[in-house]
UniProtKB/TrEMBL annotation:
Protein name: Alcohol dehydrogenase
Signal peptide positions on this chain: none
Organism encoding this protein: Melanomma pulvis-pyrius CBS 109.77
Names of required cofactors: Zn(2+)
Record-linked PANTHER family: ALCOHOL DEHYDROGENASE 1-RELATED, DEHYDROGENASE FAMILY OXIDOREDUCTASE, PUTATIVE (JCVI)-RELATED
């Protein structure tokens, strides 16, 4: 069957303070070059970091989206023929250089030469997406596309972040997750609980409390009602959590979250505040308290495959709501207001 030449996409108009997402028809379909494939999308999750594209926080392409699932419908030159018709996931990491020290250690997610979906190339909120054959993720049979989608960014980001609390933090010890009820956070609660950590979930509102408890948190602290620092200290013998993962990207979250970690603990930066915001802690405090500060951006290919296997076994169960493609602009606005509990996924029109 001949493929169409134009398509429907979600497009960012005037990125910046007045930026908005609009649905646009008649946009050209790109063709796969050497080592690339064309994927006909089924669905795509919408991530809080897609708001950065809309708000013009950095240089991005016109079409956002970086957790999409679809079927390979066309191969570029030099791509193995068995990829045709495979169901695949397209992640934030569109490609890596393959030659640097990070790539050689399997940490492709930290490759300085990486290209990113929605940033360096157009994203997954389109009907047909060009993807790099080497950096696709094969989706196992038995994992529905709408379940796989949020694992590609939200799930993988938190699989990576939870792995970073080791070796300092041991199973049975406390991890506080700031922003635990959102798209990334709630899967992080489940991953951390599955790994044996005691999770203190921090977020606001009853829906998020219910979700975090469902995902395995031992406690929920509502920042809209409680003093977060004293609540976390009360839960942890007055010392603070052994590890803190800051998933929220607000400046306020980063100003408060370092106070939640105990001495010799680990603090992991995940959420993305504006680029000019600096980590709000003095080297003297970091030194005196013996803190370990780490950064985490998505995760490795091995962590991706492990996560999909856990989903297949029913051990990782993202909370998803599926919407029509035309709802994408409204979902971006809800994300900007921190109103989304779990993950909203849109169906891409066939
Ligand atoms: Zn994301
Ligand atoms: Zn590299």
């Amino acid at each position: 069957m001949a493929l169409p030449t134009s398509q429907t996409v979600a497009w960012i108009e005037s990125p910046g303070a007045e930026g908005k997402l609009v649905i646009r028809d008649g946009v050209d379909i790109q063709q796969p070059a050497k080592g690339e494939v064309l994927v006909k999308m089924e669905c795509s999750g919408i991530c809080h970091s897609d708001c950065r594209n809309v708000e013009g926080m950095g240089k991005y392409e016109d079409i956002p989206g970086h957790e999409g699932v679809g079927v390979v419908v066309k191969l570029g030159p030099d791509v193995a023929s068995d990829l045709l018709s495979k169901r695949v996931g397209i992640k934030w990491l569109w490609s890596a250089c393959g030659n640097c020290a990070a790539c050689k250690r399997g940490k492709v997610n930290n490759c300085p030469g990486q290209l990113n979906t929605g940033r360096s190339v157009n994203g997954t909120l389109q009907q047909y997406v060009v993807a790099h054959a080497t950096y696709l993720t094969l989706i196992p049979d038995g994992v529905p596309s709408e379940v796989a989608a949020p694992l590609l960014c939200a799930g993988l980001s938190l699989a990576g972040a939870v792995s970073k609390v080791a070796p300092e933090v041991q199973p049975g010890e406390f991890i506080a997750i700031v922003g635990a009820g959102g798209g990334l956070g709630h899967i992080g609660v489940q991953i951390a609980a599955h790994k044996g950590y005691k999770v203190i979930a921090i977020d606001g509102g009853e829906d998020k409390r219910v979700l975090c408890k469902e995902m395995g948190a031992v406690a929920f602290v509502d920042y809209t009602k409680e003093d977060v620092v004293s609540a976390v200290k009360a839960l942890t013998d007055g010392e603070g959590a052994h590890g803190v993962i800051c998933v929220a990207g607000s400046e306020r979250a980063y100003q408060q979250a370092p106070s939640l970690v105990r001495n010799n603990g680990v603090f992991v930066c995940v959420g993305l505040p504006p680029d000019d915001f600096m980590f709000p802690m003095s080297p003297i405090h970091i030194a005196n308290r013996g803190l370990v500060i780490k950064g985490s951006s998505t995760g490795t290919s091995e962590q991706m495959d492990e996560l999909l296997q856990l989903a297949l076994q029913g051990k990782i169960t993202p909370k998803i709501e599926v919407y029509e493609f035309a709802d994408a602009p409204k979902i971006i606005q809800e994300l900007q207001r921190y109103e989304v509990t779990g993950r909203k996924v849109v169906k891409v029109p066939s």
